[in-house]
Amino acid sequence: MIITFGREKSSGVINSVNNLVAGEKISIPENPNWQNELGGVTTNTEPIQEEDTSTTETATDVVSKTLMSNYLALKQSGTLDATSAQKLVDQTASLVGQLGSSVVLDTKLNIIPDNGLQSITNYGENLGNILKNNKPTEIKNEIEIISTAVSSRDPSKINELDPIIVIYEKIASDFEKMPVPKTFVRAHLDMTNGVKGITVALKEMKSVFSDPIKSLAAMQLYQEGIIVFTQPLQASRAFIYQNKIIYKQGSGGYYLLYGI
């Protein structure tokens, strides 16, 4: 599982979010679907029921027992070969996905009426200020922290995620409180839910030593949260820029558009 976590799963995430840190300007491949009118933005994070915590059995226990019982069954029946072994691996990987993190989203926004260009200007200023004010003094990569902790077998290093989690929680809270004109509601809801998803995933990923399967499954939620957050953020930037909104250097709006 350490090999799978370190090489296969995390490599894809690292490649897709190489420049993502809390409050930092984000660069992702252009998505034409988000470059149309902003009103086309839709929420693609659906609430999921919370997991049953009545049992002390971890996700790793479930997967390990399932994998071993099926392996022994194949072995005893004499049907264990390259094909059946690969099928067993695929089935186990599917089970890992099913044991992913559960998220219940209860996002309530501070929605205000639209007021033309002034609404757009104020929204960009407020959004940029949140990202700017929550920019960490020392930028750290979440995936590298987990990989280092695993490779060094030092559980204490995983606690380096705590201040990062606090930053994401603060961003999500600020997103919910800030005024959001109706024009930006769908995009803003996605951004907020995306940050919440990232936060939950990082908390789950901290269990890499006690429940590595659960931590591995949380990687999917982490990656989805990043996509749900970055796409509408990019669309909002483009929308503001297309409306020729001018911000002074050093302002929140300027930071939102140019990252400085």
Question: How would you describe this protein?
Answer:
The chain has helices spanning 2-16, 59-77, 82-98, 116-133, 142-152, 162-177, 185-205, 212-242, 252-258, and strands at 110-112, 179-181. The chain is mainly alpha-helical and 260 residues long. The chain has a domain at 2-10 and 104-258. Strands 1-2 form a two-stranded parallel ribbon. α2 (59-77) packs antiparallel against α3, α6 runs antiparallel to α7 and α7 (185-205) runs antiparallel to α8. The radius of gyration is 21 Å and the shape is elongated. The two termini are 40 Å apart.
Our count of helices gives: 9
Largest sheet properties: 2 strands, parallel
How much of the sequence lies in strands comes to under 5%
CA distance, first residue to last residue = 40 Å
Overall pLDDT metric = 74
Shape: elongated
Q: What's the SSE pattern?
A: HHHEHHHEHHH
Q: What's the helix and strand layout?
A:
Elements lengths: L1 H15 L42 H19 L4 H17 L11 E3 L3 H18 L8 H11 L9 H16 L1 E3 L3 H21 L6 H31 L9 H7 L2
Parallel strand pairs: 1-2
